[in-house]
Design goal:
This protein is mostly helical and 178 residues long. The protein has two domains: 2-52, no CATH class; 82-169, no CATH class. Helix content is 75%, strand content 5%. Helix 3 packs antiparallel against helix 4. The longest helix is centred in the middle third of the chain and has 65 residues, at 55-119. It is elongated and about 105 Å long. The two termini are 49 Å apart.
Length: 178
């Protein structure tokens, strides 16, 4: 918001009203040179522009800088949210990597026991055998998912190594050219 020039005594009333809107950016344009010290002391957070030659250009520069800063803050906040989200995903990924052996052991046990139960068809009813086949099929699906997850983890590690090697090569090149 651009304020000014205003009549004597009205600046305080205007900025008191504006103070209830903390997200509002203000720039004060003033006529009287004698007021600049008082204005800057009273409202240090508010940029002041004396109304002389080129004041409009100065005002445009301040407005442009204010917009750039606002956009930078928005980008920084977005990057921070994405970083927090990525950190959460990374934590989940690490947890899954840590749990993978235990899950694989449990799946192996389920598959083995289901296979044993299916090898002895006389001990279970037809309905029970169908349920055992369902358990067996679902365990196989989970096993496939875990295998894909293991492949993804291997690919990620290989990609990390390639990236580190590339970074080292680039660093070495820049380090030796200086």
């Amino acid at each position: 918001m651009i304020v000014g020039p205003v009549r004597d005594g009205k600046v305080s009333a205007i900025f008191s009203a504006l103070s209830s809107y903390p997200a509002t950016s203000s720039v004060l344009v003033f006529d009287a040179e004698k007021d600049i010290s008082w204005l800057q002391a009273e409202y240090p957070q508010v940029p002041t522009v004396p109304r002389r030659d080129g004041w409009a250009s100065t005002l445009i520069l301040i407005a442009s800088e204010s917009l750039r800063r606002t956009e930078a803050v928005v980008r920084a906040q977005r990057a921070e949210r994405l970083a927090i989200e990525s950190q959460g995903h990374a934590t989940l990924g690490l947890y899954m990597l840590d749990m993978r052996p235990g899950i694989n052991n449990a799946l192996t046990s389920i598959l083995g026991n289901a296979d044993l139960l299916l090898l002895e068809p006389g001990h279970a009813s037809a309905e029970c055998r169908d349920q055992i086949r369902t358990v067996h099929t679902m365990a196989l699906r989970l096993n496939e998912i875990m295998q894909r997850f293991s492949s993804l983890a291997t690919e990620m590690r290989a990609g990390e190594k390639d990236s580190q090697a590339e970074t080292a090569t680039v660093s070495h090149r820049f380090g030796s050219s200086s």
